[in-house]
Amino acid sequence: MAGTKRTGIVLQERDRHLLSELGVMRIIDRDGAKLVAGFGSTTRANTRLLKLTRAGLLRRFFTGTIASGRKAVYTLSPKGGEAVHAQFEGIKRPSGRLVRGDRFVEHQSAINDAYIAIKYRPSPHPHFRLLRWLSFRREIAEGIKLKPDGYFEVQTGDLIRPMFLEVDLGTEALSIWQQKTGYYLQLALSGAFQQRFRQPQFRVLVVATSESRLHHVRAVVAKQTDKIFWFATFESIKRHDFWSPCWLRPTGDQGRGLL
Question: 3-class DSSP state for residue 100?
Fold first, then answer.
């Protein structure tokens, strides 16, 4: 364990892991922190998050409404980011204040749900391993205007499956999906993906807010390709499992699993 007079707290390995993961996830709530840091109880999670906040390693704000309830959300402070050399800094929101209708928070929370499901939830495959997760500050290749919500590689036995993640909250025009589909096809066919990621091929996982939205996005994608894209809703993943046969291809109604 290591401590520092600047923070007034002895950092445990669990604390460092949580801070490092926040360098990827940007924000986290208590339930997410319990899974990521392995807290055995809600009380322990609340106590430690409060200590890290008071020590100046985390910043806390709230989401929701006063009428329907509010939820604490944590992000890295500059000190917290320095302590673990974080990949991304924390987000800037009024500390201790209630934030409503924040699209970035909503979008990042949805990405984090997928990240936690992939990395911290049990996999049905006995030899499953997450090899890496990448987030993107800029477009992933010259001339290809794509900045995916995430990219990860999972290994099952000797097989490595590279996948991009796209979270769709229904706020973009469907014409954007027409453009995205074209860019992903360009990425696949131009050799740019193989050059950058050193893998032969990839999938694009699209998670949508509703069955209706999923139907519309699938229809747009299907006009250009019936390959590489896989679709699911947040609800179907929550009801079943991220790796369950809840995924659809651009055409057809047969649910499939990713592994």
Answer: coil
Residue 67 confidence (pLDDT): 65
- CA torsion through residues 107, 86, 134, 177, sign: positive
Round to whole Å and give the CA distance between 225 and 222: 5
235-240 contacts: CB < 8 A, separation 24 or more?
235/210, 237/114, 237/117, 237/207
Q: What is the pLDDT of residue 2?
A: 46
pLDDT score at 127: 86
Three-state secondary structure call for residue 62: strand
For residues 233 and 108, give the distance between their C-alpha atoms in angstroms, rounded to a whole number. 16
Instruction: Kindly report the pTM of this predicted structure.
Output: 0.92
Query: For residue 232, is it left (φ>0), alpha (ψ between -120 and 50) or beta?
Result: beta
The helix (H) or strand (E) run that includes residue 168 is: strand 159-168
Split the chain (259 residues) into runs of 10 and give each run's mean pLDDT. 57 96 97 95 96 97 80 96 94 91 94 95 86 94 94 95 97 96 97 96 97 97 98 95 96 95
Cα separation, 24 vs 37, whole angstroms? 14
Secondary structure (3-state) at 113:
helix
User: Phi/psi at 173 (nearest 5 deg)?
Assistant: -65, 150
Contact 84, 23 (CB under 8 A): yes
